[in-house]
Amino acid sequence: MSDTKKIIEIEVLRYQPESDTEPHLEVYKVPFSDDMSVLQGVQYIKDNFDGSLTFRWSCRMAICGSCGMMINGIPKLSCETFLRDYYPNRVRVEAMAHFPIEKDLVVDLSGFIGKLESIQPYIIPREARSLEQGEYIQSPEQFNAYIQFTSCINCTLCYAACPQFGLNPDFIGPAAIALLHRYNMDSRDGAAEQRMELVASEEGVFNCSAVGYCSEVCPKHVDPANAVNINKTNAAKDYFLRFLSPKGGSK
Amino acid sequence: MSKRRPYVRSMDGWWKKNPFFVEYMIHESTALFVAAYAFVLLVGLIRLGQGEAAWNGWLEAMKSPLSLVFHLAFLVAIAYHTYSWFVIMPKTLPPIIVGGKRVGPAAITGGGLLAAVVASIAMLALVWRIAL
Q1: What domains are defined for chain B?
Q2: What is the mean pLDDT of residues A84-92?
Q3: How many CB atoms lie within 10 A of CB A136?
Q4: How far B131 CA lies from chain A's nearest CA (Å)?
Q5: Quick count: other Cβ atoms within 10 Å of Cβ A9?
Q6: Using the beta-carbon criterion (under 8 Å), do B7 and A163 form an inter-chain contact?
Q7: CB contact, 8 Å: A229 with chain B?
Q8: What are the residue ranges spanned by the domains of chain A?
């Protein structure tokens, strides 16, 4: 191909915990072709300029959710973001915002993993059924109530987009609340009350000020802002109806 | 011994780092204009309770050139507040199902804006009739 000689400058935020006191930017001149993603550009740097450059990736087709980065300040999956869209300008690549940087482009996701566990992301059956009683039946309408929120790939771009999470890292945040909502909306599940305690807690939905950027950056159109804001209403209902029927966070 | 030393970046000036956040801060700050104008109307109500002279004084103050400039600024800010409010509305509502299909975000935003325009025109017509 004739365009393989094009050179783009990729500016990478580097942080080596063993030697650096704070992150710094380094610029690399990377030859690229029109079909090269930002991830491939970063891989080129690792293969040809500096083998110590550290980043996460796996599937290269926007389904594993590993390669999230800030690309020119916008949270994106680097595998589905193309260098040609930035050329001839320089493109800046940084670790996902609001998370602690572990090394270079790798962030510490342990807080997020803990939140995922805390929301009980599995069906806790509403009623126990024996094998003889058969499967749990669900209508298309019941299925449609939650299917959108099953699409999350845990890329955490929504956290990198959420300033409220940046200001309060204890906030359960968009993706975990979207998954919480997915199980609460499932007709087979019976644990919504337990999860609502978390929704209404100090770490819950009222940290959200409806910036809405989480839904804008979501590569799978989960619309986590919608899940968070629906649960503000749900938590408020629990609060105001607590004298009639105490439940959720208002027991 | 662990070599881990996770680096936490500062959130100072976070809202200046992304055009989306700048717009967010602008549309959120228009709420101050809504509150300020509610305060202006509240003062009018208090003056009305204080008798005819006080009420006419308030009306005169509302007609001053400075007041008209402020009113124009309030109109722009509150119009933008209304617009941004309905733009975010699809993200805040539970799904609305009509005829088995979910109503899309554009229809919710458009419907909200239409309702705001109709309500504003109705209010204007009502006030116009009283004033004449």
Answers
A1: 14-131 (1.20.1300.10)
A2: 96
A3: 14
A4: 40
A5: 15
A6: no
A7: yes
A8: 2-107, 110-250
**DSSP assignment string, A46-87:** HHHT-TT-------SSSSS---EEEETTEEEEGGGSBGGGTT
What does the alpha-carbon distance between residue A55 and residue B11 come to, in Å, rounded to a whole number? Answer: 23
What's the rounded Cα separation, in Å, for the pair B130 and B127?
5
| ipTM confidence | 0.90
Query: Best of B2, B7, B21, B108 to disrupt the A interface by mutation (most A CBs within 10 Å)?
Result: B7
The class that CATH gives domain A2-107 is alpha beta
**DSSP label at residue B103:** P
pTM (predicted TM-score): 0.92
Token pair of A251, please? 């027991």
Asked if the model's pLDDT at residue A251 lies above 90, the reply is no
pLDDT the model gives residue A248: 65
Tell me which CATH code domain A110-250 carries.
1.10.1060.10
Burial classification of residue A219, based on how many CB atoms lie within 10 Å of its CB (0-12 exposed, 13-18 middle, 19 or more buried)? buried
Is-contact A171 A164, C-beta < 8 A?
yes
